Amino acid sequence: MLSVLNGLNSLTLASLEVGHHFYWQLGNLKVHGQVFLTSWFVIGLLVVASLLATRNIQRIPSGIQNFMEYALEFIRDLAKNQLGEKDYRPWVPFIGTLFLFIFVSNWSGALIPWKLLRLPEGELAAPTNDINTTVALALLTSLAYFYAGFSKRGLGYFKKYIEPTPILLPIAILEDFTKPLSLSFRLFGNILADELVVAVLVLLVPLFVPLPVMALGLFTSAIQALVFATLAAAYIHEAMEGHGGEEHEDHSH
Amino acid sequence: MDPLVSAASVIAAALAIGLAAIGPGIGQGNAAGQAVEGIARQPEAEGKIRGTLLLTLAFMESLTIYGLVIALVLLFANPFA
């Protein structure tokens, strides 16, 4: 099946390779080189943008400083909506990093013509279309909400497993596994699906027709970055507050 | 790859994505309908309703995406091949 798809693709600009990687051997580890390259590119882009924005801070922001302040305000509002006025501040860096990294990764996969660069094997694409990246991000989220729960409530954090009734204990434990699973699969599936749909359309009609689908892809990848960040914030909030919803009402607006 | 396994995998992939699209389709239709109703009743709340709707649509869509992930695994990284 795979060979047929790739054989057809060798004629066109956008080749489509799922499960082919550009392997690097680091000691005993075999890593996916193309993901590293694009991740470093994304990280570099973010670092350069931050440095440029903070290099010459003006009282009245303009240009890139204005833009980055807008991004910061957006992230702060997102965190504030989920975590509440009282304790959102320490989590802004984490949630902001998640959002910005995922957002820039997703868009870089769609906007930057990676296909012009040839690798010996595999191809450059958004780093988030590799399941390893998304699983790493999701596990970081898990660690973050465990840490949030422990630091806020100490050992009382474990009470949430038996809170309404101990009968639900297995489901409560299962939840800790399904959270990172669903987070990672959602992001991975969405980004991979976007790129696959675009690649298949490019295969059928190489010019102009894929453009609306690419625009839709940009939209969904932005939404997915937002969803990932929102869910991470919601999980952290849930770990800090328990399942009680009475305080949730206050900061839903 | 064994032709029987390939045939079964292709059918399973088609079923995975097709069946997984039913539920979220119904759910998204419901949510969009209710949102439109809400906007018609209260046009000033449109921004808030649209934001919430987009977020919830993404959640529902992720159910189909799980089916898609299964389909992609069957097609490109088949564990039985």
Overview of this protein structure:
The complex is a heterodimer of chains A (253) and B (81). With 253 residues, chain A is mostly helical. Chain A has one domain. Chain A is 64% helix and 3% strand. Chain A has a two-stranded antiparallel ribbon with strand order 1-2. In chain A, helix 4 runs antiparallel to helix 7. The longest helix of chain A has 36 residues. Chain A is globular and about 60 Å long. Chain B contains two helices and no strands. The mean pLDDT of chain B is 90. Chains A and B meet through helix 6 and helix 7 of A and helix 2 of B.
What is the tally of helical segments of chain A? Answer: 7
What is the number of helical segments of chain B per DSSP (H or I, 4+ residues)? Answer: 2
**Coarse structural class of chain B:** mainly alpha
User: Which value, in Å, is the CA radius of gyration of chain A?
Assistant: 21 Å
Q: What is the count of distinct domains of chain B?
A: 1
Overall spatial form of chain A: globular
Radius of gyration of chain B, in Å, reads 18 Å
Helix content of chain A: 55-70%
Report the span from N to C terminus of chain B: 5 Å
Largest sheet of chain B: none
| Fourth CATH level, the homologous superfamily of chain B | F1F0 ATP synthase subunit C
How are the strands of the largest sheet of chain A arranged? Answer: 1-2
Largest interface: A-B, 19 and 16 residues
